[in-house]
Design goal:
The chain is an alpha+beta fold. The chain has one domain. Helices cover 33% and strands 19% of the residues. The strands form 4 sheets. The chain has a 3-stranded antiparallel beta sheet, with no helix packed on it. Strands 2-9 form a two-stranded antiparallel sheet. A two-stranded antiparallel sheet has the order 3-4. α5 runs parallel beside α7. The protein is globular. Bound molecules: iron/sulfur cluster (SF4) (2 copies). The site of one iron/sulfur cluster has 11 residues, from loops. Pfam families: CxxCxxCC. It comes from Caldithrix abyssi. This is YkgJ family cysteine cluster protein.
Length: 206
């Protein structure tokens, strides 16, 4: 298992918008709240439309739990469908995320900070995860405060924690792909997310 460096207070990093983490074999795992944000960005009425229209797909992890991830385009190369490239005034290619900032998936918004939650031991820690093997941002001297990042994302982190609790139940119940989709990832987008997550909690235990 990869060993990551724990972050206690601060970390050095500055994104150059090279887009290496939005292309190639990168995997962008999503939470239900990420589906909610992406669906609303696309003016959909249901989360299901993200799957029907090829923006997201379900993948099984090492614990046999089905999780959604962004479905990358594969032609002419592998890239995130929300990546938009443009040239700056020096003709340097800049990678922009169309979901930035308020619809961005949590894992992208937190990069290079990763959150490791152990639900059985009820522990969590934050670690430095290189966004891409050749990420130039890791060479920056810019100091960033972990506390500031966590404070700015507090509500989302709480929703993610709620989701991890549901995943534990899904793992213990050995839910199939169809059951997982129906109980965790299929919802209407016209309600506040706290109402949706409360409904998902009821669905997963029935
Ligand atoms: S690879 Fe690093 S520097 Fe490049 S866009 Fe991703 S986070 Fe930013
Ligand atoms: S959602 Fe945005 S930041 Fe995340 S991989 Fe796609 S383009 Fe990059």
């Amino acid at each position: 298992m990869t060993k990551y460096i724990p972050i206690k207070e601060s970390y050095r990093f500055s994104c150059t918008m090279c887009a290496h983490c939005c292309t190639g074999d990168q995997e962008v795992l999503l939470t239900p709240f990420d589906l909610y944000k992406m669906g609303r960005f696309l003016h959909y009425e249901t989360s299901e439309e993200l799957f029907d229209n090829g923006w997201a797909e379900l993948v099984k992890n090492e614990n046999n739990v089905w999780r959604p991830q962004i479905r990358f385009k594969i032609k002419p190369f592998k890239y995130c469908p929300f990546l938009s490239n443009e040239l700056d005034e020096d003709s340097t290619l800049i990678g922009r995320c169309q979901l930035h900032p308020e619809h961005k998936p949590l894992v992208c918004a937190m990069a290079p900070v990763g959150r490791i939650v152990d639900m059985e031991k009820n522990t969590e820690e934050y670690v430095f995860v290189k966004p891409a093997p050749d990420c130039p941002g890791v060479h920056s001297a810019q100091q960033n405060s972990l506390n500031e990042l966590l404070t700015s994302l507090k509500e989302e982190l709480d929703f993610q924690r709620n989701y991890f609790e549901l995943l534990e139940i899904a793992k213990n119940r050995l839910l199939s792909k169809e059951q997982s989709f129906e109980r965790l990832y299929q919802f209407r987008l016209n309600k506040p997310f706290r109402v949706i997550i409360a409904d998902l909690k009821k669905r997963i235990v029935r």
